[in-house]
Design goal:
The protein is mainly alpha-helical. The chain has four helices and no strands. Helix 1 crosses helix 3, helix 1 packs across helix 4 and helix 3 runs antiparallel to helix 4. The chain is elongated, with a radius of gyration of 16 Å.
């Protein structure tokens, strides 16, 4: 592991993988609140241009969150109906 501060490591991961905050937290065994704070508040002070790149990814995730949630619910009930048959 590099000697870079954790917010930089998390930011590079999000930009490289496109992972959500929740997925990033899982990869690094951190809480999602910790990851979110590191990627927003701490990174903003540490490396503003990188913060802007990460913010664009996080904003995109927020914009499509309702679609992912709807798909998950749809799939859940589809599987439940399938099991009843």
């Amino acid at each position: 592991m590099s000697n870079d501060p954790r917010p930089l490591i998390l930011a590079r991961h999000v930009l490289r993988s496109g992972d959500t905050v929740r997925a990033t937290a899982k990869v690094f065994s951190l809480g999602k609140s910790t990851v979110h704070k590191e990627l927003t508040k701490t990174l903003k002070k540490l490396d503003y241009p990188l913060y802007l790149e990460v913010k664009a990814v996080l904003d995109e995730h927020a914009a499509v969150r309702h679609i992912r949630g709807g798909e998950a619910t749809k799939n859940k009930y589809f599987l439940l109906r399938k099991e009843k048959k």
